[in-house]
Amino acid sequence: MKYERFRENCFNCSVCSTRCDGISKEVYLFENDSAFSEHFEQEIISHINKSGNFIARKPPDHKFPDIEVSEKQTCEISFYIEVKVQRRTFMSVEKILPESGLIPSETVALNLSDLLRYFEIAEKNNLKIYLLWVLLNRPCILGETDKRFFFSDTENLQKVYEKEKDKRRFRRKSGEGDVVDGEHKGVVVNYHFSLNELKEWKGF
């Protein structure tokens, strides 16, 4: 499903006067990124719990997405939310993934292994799983706000994945900070989507 309002307003990065930095940071501080994402997870959990209809919490089983949401009256699990914070723009997407049809201003990413795992969990357990991107540091999309939220469910994203296959897949080099206590935790293989394949969430 396409949401053309973003496609119509996408900025041409090649002529942008405030172009985002396209240089790879090469230092991937996994623990810092994890703590930063945790902040937004807690913010979303708090917002959902204040709504009165649902109860949101961190799931006890870490194989599931970041947030478990249950019906307040029945306590039955209603859906899950995986939160991804995007602080940098994939400025080289047109060069590195030319067949993707993506441009930097509209591109968001997700760990490929997580994506495939959530497809499997949703299908196997007949669950609704939403992926929510928190978009930061992208003035052309944010406008006057400091952040915006875009989401889709795994059913829609799987259709995109099955259509695009490896056209949207990219493996980056490992960098400083990927390894924590001898274990490689940094994300190196990402899959990419367009804002035109997502909806905006204005829950806040």
Structure summarized in a few sentences:
By secondary structure, the chain is an alpha+beta fold.
Number of strands: 11
Helical segment count: 6
Number of domains: 1
Rg (C-alpha, Å): 17 Å
- Note the overall shape: globular
Q: And the CATH topology?
A: Trna Endonuclease, Chain: A, domain 1
Main sheet attributes: strand count, strand direction, barrel closure = 6 strands, mixed
- Secondary structure category: alpha+beta
Helix content: 25-40%
Order of helix and strand elements from N to C terminus: HHEEEHEHEHEHEEEEE
pLDDT < 50 runs, ≥5 residues: 175-186
Q: If you had to describe this structure to a student in words, what would you say it looks like?
A:
There is one protein chain. This protein is an alpha+beta fold and 204 residues long. The chain has one domain: 3-Layer(aba) Sandwich (Trna Endonuclease, Chain: A, domain 1). Helix content is 30%, strand content 26%. The protein has 6 helices and 11 strands. The strands form 3 sheets. It has a 6-stranded mixed sheet, with helices on both faces. A 3-stranded antiparallel sheet has the order 4-10-7. Strand 2 and strand 3 form a beta hairpin. The longest helix has 22 residues. It is globular and about 55 Å long.
List keywords for this structure.
three-stranded antiparallel beta sheet; globular
